């Protein structure tokens, strides 16, 4: 009898260890829509993640960290899905993990490269694994299939997961404004053409006006040399009061309700000339949709840090594009914005 009891206890402990949750039970019962303004960052070999600015252990009390397997990041998923307000089911006998969030259901099996997203079969390049008794799952695959953006900063080995959904309170305003054509302008700052490329795609796709912010003193390649700590761009980025002057002006900003605002990432933030731009006009009642381009950094706080330069504007979560930004990628983002407001 005693032996039977200890076997039973061992089985229970093992089930707990590998799933971090009870057998066949729901970790989080409240499935809901993707939370708005969600931003989660985590780093390879770091057991702490940040969710909307708050630090939390990725795998409470276990010290488990994200790891790279076959160039893909695997992590214990439970706390992440909880933060997204989704739920997880674990089936011990089939070793199946089911993740549910909003209208999405993702099914994965330990050791299998086949997953299902709403019953559609998809191939994983890295299968879920149990490492040191913890279940580790491919975070990019799961997050993207739940409708989140995933960015990878290779230098700092940081993964950023952000949602693209738009706060409900913003919906009505956007709905009205985006319906009306000819009321949208794409404004951008670009020196080496990457942000310009994205801006042109947006303008073409939406048939919107376009405006390039031009500095009174154009940036030379030496000004943009960010390995030189005393280059103009670096000095400006380190100076909160820097406001590089703008040469040109939007004469009739009143007629625009929606402003797509594009910039390159400079040291994780928008260039200071974007502050000059935002302080130059009255954006009350207008909707601003930021986008940026970078080598590898995510949009991070660069978009939200611009909010304080406007009064009574409606800001939407921004989008980051890489150097290889394509028309299709831009189109998908614009469609996601539209879908989120309908
Ligand atoms: C001063 C400076 C700082 C930069 N900082 C970052 C950075 O923090 N992260 C990053 O991924 N790229 C960084 N970049 C690269 C640019 O974000 C990237 O090349 C961008 O797409 C350039 O846009 P543009 O061609 O429209 O000017 C930096 C570039 C410059 C000039």
Mind summarizing the main beta sheet? 6 strands, parallel
Helix content bin: 10-25%
Let me know the number of strands.
20
What gyration radius follows from the Cα positions, in whole Å?
A: 23 Å
**Contiguous runs where pLDDT drops below 50 for at least 5 residues:** 12-35
Content of β-strand: 25-35%
Helix-strand pattern: HEEEEEHEEEEEEEHEEHEHEHEHEEEH
Provide mean pLDDT, rounded: 84
Bound molecules: flavin mononucleotide
* SS-based class: alpha+beta
Separate helix tally? 8
**What sort of overall outline do the alpha carbons produce when their principal axes are compared?**
elongated
Q: Ends: how far apart? A: 62 Å
Oligomer status: single chain
Task: Explain what this protein looks like in three dimensions.
The strands form four sheets. Strands 15, 16, 17, 18, 19 and 20 form a six-stranded parallel β-sheet that branches. The protein has a five-stranded antiparallel β-sheet with strand order 3-2-1-14-13. A five-stranded antiparallel β-sheet has the order 6-7-8-9-10. It is α+β, with helices and mostly antiparallel strands. Helix 5 crosses helix 8. About 7% of the residues have low confidence. It contains eight helices and 20 strands. Helix content is 25%, strand content 27%. The termini are far apart. The site of flavin mononucleotide (FMN) has 22 residues, from helix 5 and helix 6.
């Amino acid at each position: 009898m005693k032996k039977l009891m200890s076997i039973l206890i061992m089985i229970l402990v093992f089930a707990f260890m590998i799933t971090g949750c009870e057998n066949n039970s729901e970790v989080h019962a409240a499935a809901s829509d993707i939370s708005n303004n969600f931003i989660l960052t985590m780093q390879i070999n770091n057991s702490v993640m940040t969710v909307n600015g708050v630090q939390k252990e990725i795998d409470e009390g276990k010290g488990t960290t994200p790891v790279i397997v076959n160039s893909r990041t695997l992590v214990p998923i439970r706390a992440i899905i909880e933060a997204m307000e989704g739920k997880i089911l674990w089936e011990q006998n089939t070793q199946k993990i089911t993740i549910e969030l909003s209208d999405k259901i993702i099914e994965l099996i330990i050791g299998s490269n086949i997953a299902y997203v709403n019953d559609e079969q998809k191939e994983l390049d890295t299968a879920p694994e149990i490492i040191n008794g913890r279940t580790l799952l491919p975070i990019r695959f799961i997050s993207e299939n739940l409708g989140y953006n995933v960015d990878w900063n290779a230098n700092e080995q940081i993964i950023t997961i952000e949602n693209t959904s738009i706060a409900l309170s913003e919906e009505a305003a956007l709905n009205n404004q985006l319906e009306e054509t000819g009321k949208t302008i794409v404004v951008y700052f670009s020196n080496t053409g990457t942000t310009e490329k994205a801006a042109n795609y947006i303008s073409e796709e939406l048939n919107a006006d376009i405006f390039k912010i031009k500095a009174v003193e154009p940036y030379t390649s030496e000004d943009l040399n960010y390995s030189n700590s005393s280059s103009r761009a670096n000095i400006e980025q380190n100076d909160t009061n820097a406001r590089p002057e703008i040469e040109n002006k939007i004469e009739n900003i009143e007629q625009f309700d929606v402003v797509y605002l594009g910039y390159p990432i400079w040291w994780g933030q928008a260039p200071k000339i974007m502050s000059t731009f935002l302080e130059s006009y009255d954006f009350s009642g207008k909707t601003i949709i930021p986008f940026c381009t970078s080598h590898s950094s995510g949009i991070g706080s660069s978009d939200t840090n611009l909010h304080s330069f406007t009064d009574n504007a409606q800001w939407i979560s921004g989008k980051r594009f890489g150097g290889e930004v394509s028309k299709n990628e831009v189109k998908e983002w614009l469609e996601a914005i539209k879908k989120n407001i309908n």
